[in-house]
Amino acid sequence: MKSLLRGTLLTGTLVALTGCASMASPPPTLQTGPDAEVTIDGLVRVDNAAVPLAYRKPGMDLTSYTRFMLDPVEIAYQKDPGNRGRSEMGGGGDNFALTPSQMENLRGMFQDAVAEALTRDNGYELTTEPGPDVLRVSASLVDLVVSVPTDMAGRQQVYTRSYGLVSLILELRDSESGEILVRAGDRRDPTRNTDASLAAVTPGAVRADTQRLFRYWADLLRERLDAFRNN
Q: What digits encode the pLDDT tens for the residues 24-74?
């Protein structure tokens, strides 16, 4: 899964779910004709999406799906952080290592955000078994860059404009056949600070901002699933 979009993400391209950009924009449409962009697994690029790129299966119908299963979240660094998580904070190129516990917390926060968004308000039922009405949701958090030390014990106060960057790759599949229906992604800095001023780094602030980003992605998924189901 990651190899299909790795090159695109590394060049800074943002990929996300198909949706209308604004009331003034034309509706999203699948590309057609000999110049249409088609992935090796048959997904077609959507023009006029809410974000620069989006791909889905032509003729896709999500109305039959009432339940979903959620695969374990995969996480991969943009480059191996090595021992930098235990080194002194250096230049902007540093990539600090998350501890195994922090990795598990990251996976858990993302899965919790998706489960909460999809099940609330008479939404979808969460299941662990494939079925004809089950949509399989697979997510990877890749090209992870951690720009601040992850071990704050014994350190002086750290200030930053950015915690780092992370790319989401999301795929929706039929749970029984494995047929892919949608591939989507986004690359963002989870830092809430938007005025480019330095802010103190605390574990609580990093967790809150990360949860906010994950809720945004999960809510977008629910919004688009509802739109497809109601059309």
A: 567 778 889 999 999 999 999 988 776 656 889 999 899 999 999 999 999
81-109 pLDDT per residue, tens: 864 444 343 334 568 888 899 999 999 99
CB-based contact 72:82 (threshold 8 Å): no
Give the domain ranges of the chain: 60-230
CB distance 81 to 95 below 8 Å: yes
**3-state helix/strand/coil string of 54-90:** CEECCCCCCCCCCEEEECCCEEEECCCCCCHHHCCCC
Q: Are 214 and 113 in contact (CB under 8 A)?
A: yes
Instruction: State pTM to two decimals.
Output: 0.82
What's the confidence (pLDDT) of residue 25? 63
At residue 231, the pLDDT reads 67
CA distances from 105 to 8, 73, 111, 206 (A): 27, 11, 10, 12
Question: 60-230 sits in which CATH class?
Answer: alpha beta
CB atoms within 10 A of CB 98: 18
The span from the CA of 163 to the CA of 216, in Å, is: 17
